[in-house]
Amino acid sequence: MLKKLTESFGVSGYEMPVADIIYEEVKKFCTDIKFDNMGNLKVFKRSKTELPPKVLLSAHMDEVGLIITDVTEEGYFKFASVGGIDPKVLIAQRVNVNGLKGVISTKAVHLTTAEERKQNLSEDKLYIDIGAKDKNEAQKVAKPGDYCVFDSKYTEFGNQIKAKALDDRIGCAIMIEILKKDWPVDLYCNFTVQEEVGLRGARVASRGINPDYAVVIEGTTCNDLPGVEANLRVTKIGAGPAISILDSASKGNEELIALLEKSATRHNIPYQFKASTAGGNDAGTICITDGGIKTASLSVPCRYIHSPVCVMNKSDFENCRRLIEVFLEDMGKDGKIND
Amino acid sequence: MISEIYSVFSPSGREEKMREYIADKISGIFDKVESDNFGNLVARSGNGDFCIECSMDSCGIMIVHIEDGKAYFAGVGGINAEYLIGKKILFCDNSIGIVRYDGKTPNEAKVSDLYLECDSSNLKIGDFGVVKSGYCETGDKMFANGLGSKIGLAAVLETLTKFEKIDNLCVLFSSQKRLGARGIQAFLGANEFDKIITVEGVADKSIKACALVVADRNGVCNTDFKDELEKVIDNIAVTDDDLCMGNITASGKGAKCAALGIPVSHKDKNFECVKKTDFFSGADYLKEVIENLQNKR
Fold it and tell me: Complex ipTM, two decimals?
């Protein structure tokens, strides 16, 4: 499922291809499924127990990508980023433009001036080449406003997976697995849109549910790389899912974090804390919804996030799924861990 | 009361001790005092459409990595690296650490370049701390690091404790204001008011005495609300500080918002200073606003 999800097309604002895959899968196990006006896919699975706690799980379907802004006379596409992409990672990448292959490039280094070489690379220096002979031919393929995604295949190597859009098809894949089973909680699963452009989908999707707890399942930054000092590494691949205490969008609810930690400890599931206050995700908008929802984020560490070659560890993914599962199992009637 | 408030541990997101302190102080004055899901403390009597807001939190730090006896940290709320160097950091369990910087250019330091020299066996990732400095006063002047973030709360408590009982008023003691007014946004998503006054410390470059602030960096006050308040507070000011007026105005179903600003000199620097006369005139203004509201009812 993760392969299918990551190879699908779902730039913020155009998530339907991903939503369709999820819909076709979850309808095999769930009957209460609906799309809201923004495109959020909301699934509800009622518990068979009496007076169950309500839990909301949330993962976003959208990915960072590009949007065409102009077509040059020579037949190249100018573009802007959708979501946060470092222009440095764009050079020499392959992209998918309405089903056709394209490559991103810029002026060769020997053609740049000394002044240009000192400047940081910006998007306006880049273009997409789809091999069109002129503007007229290029316009038959795409026009301003059309989206592009990285052209990157899902690949397994060692215990790792390389793919685009692991942020946050990881969360989508885990929620699909969770929805295959019955739980002792009333389970709301929101597959949200437009997280990468301002946490917008979750703002709408989480209203009116009033859950006891909400857990955002994510892919998060991981800088366990050469040259990065230990105190800046944020998370570590292979050390388990990361619980966020505080980031730029939200502070994890202490009560919920304690429950997640307790479940992990009881079931011998490794976990780590995200050692940074940078970044943010849908928890930022969920936690302030309807007078406040007790919210936390559980994330799978991803190296090279927001690039065509995100890398995650299979064990981290499995441990994230397991931790969500045991957390749901451990929830008692009153929303506390059953000791 | 100010030195007492100042000593309560309440970094953004970890305001539980402040919630307890406030709830104890105002017990009996309101029909109901309770915490919400987000961590705000809400005191309420009746179903009035008027709310007073002040924040419980202060900026601080959070431990993100511990290695070789050094505890590395991130800032919580807007906190400046150069300001932190050499400061004493206090944790919830009263353990302390001293902020160290091994570089040679403090003005270029980033928070990630700093670490705490401490007994790291007492600390773990995720622990919150605050800058600890002694409160002191001389004549009309009160001094403490971060005093400006607590002065609004102090003025509100000073006012409320003058009443035996208050009707038709809601007071929001908000959580995580220094992290983007999140507590306010959460609260107003589920509670509707016509008018809200926020009480805050404001840099004295914009106000020279306690003032009714009708516009801040992100928000403006509706003129009818301004006209109503101007009958009580004739000193009107505009500031480029962010007092969260915009967040308040646009949260939930929207509300008219003004701010009661108490001037703070040397804001965000060592030993911020507030004049007692400004503080007490702020509390007096607020008392009159509440009395008018009570009489109107």
Answer: 0.84
